[in-house]
């Protein structure tokens, strides 16, 4: 029985499935998650395993995105607990974020309201060229491991996972399906029945090293790039060094010059990285599923069925995706109450 089909086995599809079970009262046995790629896979067309991934100041400061960030940050402990605690690959660690220009009152005041340990760094402690910096406790994901544990948890409740590639969104409606959630990320650019030309990739490259001595996050924001250092919890001491934010770049290959640039920038930002010999584990490339105007979270009638879109999380699917999915599921609940959209 697949009353509801969630297309997409990335973090947004998993958050959506979780919200459906917890917020709409649909029983897990009635949900199928369908995707070309599922947790455990690696592909340039599957963004979620490649994320850093932490909670940072990457999101824009419109009210809605700020509310998704807040929802995610303040509710992640609930998922962490249900998945068995921090060893599921989700833990809190300290972070410092810095800017060449003040990021604006709206963002800072919002974060101040709910982030643990939030404090503005005193001016006399700022690095050269930095105008403003904050310290906070962030959520750190060991992304591939967390995805696999999240899938196992949802399966234990009764959710079915099916590997399948769609060429048209209508193929997601199995014989008894009444509602489809479209969580296909970058796939929404080319999937017939959706083909959203506002979707584009924001390419990133990261260098993953072994660094048990670094247990803090550090990010320096600039106009078109970010230099970031992100420890992965329960990963055998992996530290993610990044990165790039290259708009409209579909290149899935890693480039040596970019890796060298990442290592230069991150070790200048946190020289302590070099207290141990640099041990590179892997270099990875990922394409963030960005969208002009921000994520699309919208319900529409598809023939006599319901189609709810939830894609376009760009560089913040882990940190805002739970809030996005909460909204997508609220559209489902509303449509069930008032069947005519
Ligand atoms: C280098 C890098 C660093 C990042 N760091 C962070 C971070 O620190 N914090 C953060 O919050 N975010 C970060 N992100 C962003 C984050 O990874 C994305 O926002 C998130 O993974 C998007 O998830 P998604 O589920 O929308 O898409 P995806 O993970 O791409 O999942 C899409 C799913 O849809 C399926 N699909 C697509 N098309 C079809 C089709 N036609 N038929 C069947 N299935 C289909 C795919 O197989 C897949 O299962 C980073 C991204 C990159 C690349």
Automatic annotation (TrEMBL):
Coiled coil: none annotated. FAD binds at residues 47-48, 184. D-serine binds at residue 228. InterPro entries: DAO, FAD-dep_OxRdtase. D-dopa binds at residues 288, 315. It comes from the Eukaryota. Residues 4-326 form the FAD dependent oxidoreductase domain. GO terms for cellular component: cytoplasm. It holds the Pfam family DAO. Keywords: FAD, Flavoprotein, Oxidoreductase. GO terms for biological process: D-amino acid catabolic process. Its cofactor is FAD. GO terms for molecular function: D-amino-acid oxidase activity; FAD binding. Belongs to the DAMOX/DASOX family. This is FAD dependent oxidoreductase domain-containing protein.
